[in-house]
Amino acid sequence: LSKSDRYFIGYFLGPSAIGLYSVVYMILSFIDQISVPFRNYIGTYLPKIWDNGNQSNALEQIRIGIMIYLSGAFYLFAMAVLYMKDFLVFISDLDFNDVKNYLFVVITIALGVTFLGLNRFYFQIIQLSRKNHFFLLFQLIGLIFNISLNIVLMPTLGLLAAGIATFIGYFLIFIMSHFYFRIPFKSKVLFLQIVV
Fold first, then answer.
1. Cβ contacts of residue 135 below 8 Å, gap of 6+?
2. How distant, in Å, are the alpha carbons of 48, 62, 65, 120 from that of 41?
3. pLDDT value of residue 196
4. Comparing C-alpha atoms, which of 145, 143, 161, 177 is closest to residue 12?
5. How far apart are CA 143 and CA 134, in angstroms?
6. What is the 3-class SS of the chain, one letter each residue?
7. 161-191 pLDDT per residue, tens
8. 104, CA 20 to 30 Å: which among 22, 53, 127, 189?
9. What are phi and psi of 148, to 5 degrees?
10. Which own/partner contact pairs does 83-92 have at CB distance under 8 Å and 24+ positions apart?
């Protein structure tokens, strides 16, 4: 899913657009990387808790990991939106006047990468519950939407289409994962917990 955009960018927009998109995506992938310590913990310790029949405790540990991840992701997302253009101008000779909707490209990719990190937590639940076929199904559905949106939107929206397709693909995977494998959140205080 994360690489499919580049094929369509190359076909519709050319190699320089692939370079720009790849650099932005690689920088924004740091949002997803802050989930790694939590995923390592979940993958190491929670299977024992889950197999001993204490699924509610395991889900609570995952919920706490998600809250910490979202707190960090929120701030990295804000920094990316504020400083990405300056950073890319500093490291390259890219002309941003040629890139339509540059800020929206960064926002949609950042949202997509944030949901990728969230999906990784849900994939841990899928593995713990030994329902790995859902992992494949959700990924395939997200990929189909990603490819379809790239084909339909890329000719008119350019790089923004790749960002939208990435975001919607990962968001759909998140919605399906949350629907089948619910983690209890108190929605009224969720935003405050993330920001604080």
1. 123, 126, 127
2. 12, 10, 9, 13
3. 45
4. 161
5. 14
6. CCCHHHHHHHHHHCHHHHHHHHHHHHHHCHHHHCCHHHHHHHHHHHHHHHHCCCHHHHHHHHHHHHHHHHHHHHHHHHHHHHHHHHHHHHHCCCCHHHCCCHHHHHHHHHHHHHHHHHHHHHHHHHHHCCCHHHHHHHHHHHHHHHHHHHHHHHHHHCHHHHHHHHHHHHHHHHHHHHHHCCCCCCHHHHHHHHHC
7. 999 999 999 999 999 998 888 887 765 555 4
8. 189
9. -60, -45
10. 84/24, 84/27, 84/28, 87/27, 88/20, 88/23, 88/24, 92/23
Q: What is the mean pLDDT of residues 20-43?
A: 88
Q: How far apart are CA 79 and CA 135, in angstroms?
A: 31
Report pLDDT for 24: 87
Residue 140 CA to residue 95 CA, distance in Å, equals 36
pLDDT digits (tens, 9 = 90+) for 77-135: 999 888 887 777 776 666 666 555 778 888 999 999 999 999 999 998 998 899 999 99
Instruction: Give the tokens for residue 36.
Output: 């790694």
Output the pTM of the full model: 0.88
